[in-house]
Specification:
- The complex is a heterodimer of chains A (587) and B (143).
- Chain A has 587 residues and is mainly β.
- Chain A has 5 helices and 40 strands.
- Chain B starts with a helix and ends in a 24-residue tail after the last helix.
- Chain B is built from 6 helices and no strands.
- Chain B has one domain: Cytochrome c-like domain (Cytochrome Bc1 Complex, Chain D, domain 2), CATH 1.10.760.
- Classes of the chains: A mainly beta (587), B mainly alpha (143).
- At the A-B interface, helix 3 of A face helix 3 and helix 4 of B.
Chain lengths: 587, 143
């Protein structure tokens, strides 16, 4: 090596070191107080704030100027699994979850890569080499894990102190240095060979990581759960089952089924927190197999399809509310818990696949109201007490076809609602679809079960007018629809509300839309390389407001089976997980 | 206007043609997955491709998961009994993997199909499953 070459290498190493030290000195650890009340330019929780509003208080981008938005930079993401990313932002740095556990830190203004955490033995971001560091977990080899390692989805991550926290596809929770991307600790929470996995990450409350696990559709001698872990060490502090066990309170709601055959209740979406009530709110998924006739009990099957209010320090269930007791069509109610105070009542709003907006008292769990979007044909909810009555002939029997709306894919999915305190409205991404469904049997043996087979023939919702997607604004005060925007393909991103009066969303056909929050007028739109998909955010970097929108593929039947069946003439690339950042032009 | 004789002739020709089309189809449809329609070697290749491309969702034991149906046993037969291998192959090829359908070589899809048959205890035969036959082979319960 020549002296000039040696000197160049030394200078490069020195520059990197100086840069790292400078960043370390500049880095402001994320405190409990910041998590509860994030700086306006930060996006510190998966829906920015504990109340899961998905609302940015930034107002540089307004209804008047949003038409000038321009692409500033973009970034290709991991292609190894479905795109469901929910990024975080702190002090202008984006922490971007990719599939199969990869996390990247990117400069929010320039898009430069700062670090990358890569748990698997795969190519680096530049494709130059492979990485198999001993201090990083190795993704379980497919030939060993297969089903049990899961499809590699990674939705949200968490930030606290100087660490990023993630939950992995092989049922571990990891802590990563937010400055360097180096692994700090790695805790195995459950045995992934039994099917356990994470697709959603933790939230942090009082230094405790609270995380819900998935992978409970098949029969095993245990159930799904939510855990609390010490953020400093990873030590598990508590574990709360999401299924009532035999002999416990509520255990008789599964009839005489032994624990082994009480499946489902996966906690696959991260929860919310209210410092006022001191409670964490977490959703649970439907029972498995989906149809009650197949799972062998017509009981309510607690605590499936419920909202659980947990003490974050003990995991104790303070109250629960089961939205659809004994649910029997795959109508999952696991989704985001949006906390809004309405008419003096501390309320919790939630919408499941069936398209009913529930309002609960989040202090007591008492039912307040239910507003049906009016698209489902399965049941009636008494809006005075929440009592659910299934329509005659709509409870599936094995081998008997029913025409159900929505389809088993649902009207609503993990594409989260956003709330705006300006309009007091929920902005809801939907897919208007139905299905001729015939539910079939499973084997009631250890390792069997699962969701159960369904002979399905999807069709458009009769009121869709041939438009599969709908982005709808609903007043939480009146329950009235303020406006709708129909699209040919599913409304395919989470919603984003902003103080600038602009609401963002995107569809499967690659569009991103900026709406007037009050009228639904499309003020700006653009197209991405593939489906808009994931959780859009807005943040500050260098004092400038940015809007970021993920794109990608996968993401369950909403973005695969449904558009392929119902809008076959509309094509999009079947790859292209990526991330786009927009801003106003420089003055 | 056609005469009665002409109409009769057309009708007869029509019946003959219809029979000509239907008879071979009926004959071919007698073939089922119990007739040894794939080879052990083909299923062996299918194991490798399946584990690489399918197992993450459908499981190493093919029993499926929350968003992916079981490919074995009563659940599989509920979905596929009395349908042809061709239908199953078309579904696999045009829809799988969900994020990138039809991205595997054609032979790999056929190999996966052979592996699914093997796991479901349909017997292997001397010859490999080859193009052109799939739609004449029915998935049926054990005779």
């Amino acid at each position: 090596m020549s002296f000039r070459c040696f000197a160049s290498v030394c200078l490069a190493v020195l520059a990197t070191y100086i840069n790292l030290v400078a960043r370390a000195e500049d880095f402001k650890p994320v405190t409990e107080e910041m998590l509860r009340n994030p700086p306006p330019g930060d996006w510190l929780n998966w829906r920015r704030t504990d109340n899961a509003w998905g609302y940015s208080p930034l107002e540089q981008i307004t209804r008047d100027n949003v038409g000038q938005l321009q692409l500033v930079w973009s970034w290709a993401m991991e292609e190894t699994a479905a795109q469901e990313t929910a990024p975080l932002v702190h002090d202008g740095i984006i922490y971007l979850p990719n599939s199969h556990g990869v996390i990247q830190a990117l400069d929010g203004a320039s898009g430069d890569l700062i670090w990358e955490y890569r748990p698997a033995v795969t190519k680096r971001v530049d494709g130059s080499a492979t990485l198999a560091s001993t201090n990083q977990i190795t993704r379980t080899a497919p030939e060993l894990s297969g089903a049990v390692s899961g499809p590699g989805v990674q939705k949200n991550i968490a930030i606290y102190g100087k660490r990023i926290f993630a939950a992995t596809g092989n049922a571990h929770i990891v802590a990563i240095d937010a400055l360097t991307g180096k692994l700090i600790w790695d805790v195995e929470v459950a045995d992934s060979s039994l099917g356990y996995r994470y697709t959603a990450g933790p939230i942090v409350v009082k230094g405790i990581l609270i995380t819900g696990i998935s992978g409970c559709s098949r029969y095993k001698d245990d159930v799904c759960f939510i855990t609390g872990h010490d953020a400093a060490t990873g030590t598990e502090l508590w574990r709360t089952s999401t299924v009532a066990r035999p002999g416990e309170q509520g255990g008789d709601t599964w009839g005489d089924l032994p624990l082994r055959f009480r499946a489902g209740s996966d906690a696959w979406i991260a929860g919310s927190y209210d410092p006022g009530t001191g409670l964490v709110y977490w959703g649970t998924a439907q029972a498995k197999p989906w149809a009650s006739a197949v799972r062998g009990t017509k009981g309510n099957a607690l605590y499936t399809n419920s909202t659980l209010a947990l003490n974050p320090e003990t995991g104790k269930i303070v109250w629960f509310y089961q939205h659809l007791p004994g649910e029997t069509h795959d109508m999952d109610e696991v989704f985001e818990n949006v906390l809004v105070d309405l008419d003096g009542r501390k309320s919790l709003f939630k919408m499941g696949k069936i398209g009913i907006l529930w309002q609960l008292d989040r202090t007591t769990g008492e039912f307040i109201n239910a507003t049906d979007l009016g698209y489902q044909n399965l049941l009636t909810v008494d809006s005075s007490n929440g009592k659910v009555t299934y329509h005659e002939g709509m409870v599936p029997e094995i081998g008997v076809q029913i025409d159900m709306c929505p389809s088993t894919s649902g009207m609503k999915s993990w594409r989260a609602i956003a709330y705006s305190p300006r309009t007091k409205a929920m902005y809801i991404p939907l897919t208007l679809n139905c299905e001729l469904a015939t539910f079939g049997p499973t084997e009631r043996i250890l390792g069997g079960g699962g969701a159960g087979p369904v002979r399905r023939k999807n069709h458009m919702h009769p009121r869709s007018n041939g438009m599969l997607g709908e982005f709808v604004a609903m007043s939480v005060e009146s329950g009235k629809i303020l406006w709708r925007h129909r699209t040919a393909t599913p409304s395919n991103t989470a919603a984003l509300t902003t103080a600038g009066g602009v609401v963002f969303g995107g569809d499967w056909d690659r569009h991103v839309y900026a709406y007037d929050e009050s009228t639904g007028e499309v003020l700006w739109q653009t197209r991405l390389i593939t489906s808009a998909q994931g959780f859009p955010i807005s943040y500050l970097a260098g004092g400038k407001q940015y809007v970021a929108v993920p794109a990608g593929v996968g993401g369950a039947s909403w973005s695969t089976l449904i558009p392929r069946d119902l809008v076959p003439d509309i094509k999009r690339p079947n790859h292209g997980n990526s991330f786009y950042v927009f801003a106003l032009p420089e003055k | 206007m056609k005469t009665l004789a002409t109409k009769t002739m057309i009708l007869i020709l029509g019946l003959v043609c219809t029979s000509a089309v239907n008879v071979p189809t009926f004959a071919q449809s007698k073939s089922s997955v119990w007739d040894g329609v794939y080879s052990e070697e083909q299923a062996k290749r299918g194991v490798t491709v399946y584990q690489e491309a399918c197992a993450a969702c459908h499981g190493v034991d093919l029993r499926g998961d929350s968003n992916s149906p079981s490919l074995i046993g009563v659940s599989f037969m509920f979905l596929w009994e009395d349908r042809s291998l061709g239908e199953l192959l078309t579904k696999i090829q045009t829809e799988m993997p969900p994020a990138n359908p039809d991205s595997l070589p054609n032979e790999s899809y056929v190999d996966i199909l052979a592996y699914v048959m093997q796991v479901n205890s349909f017997p292997a035969g001397e010859d490999e499953l080859v193009p052109g036959k799939y739609h004449q082979i029915l998935i049926t319960g054990k005779p």
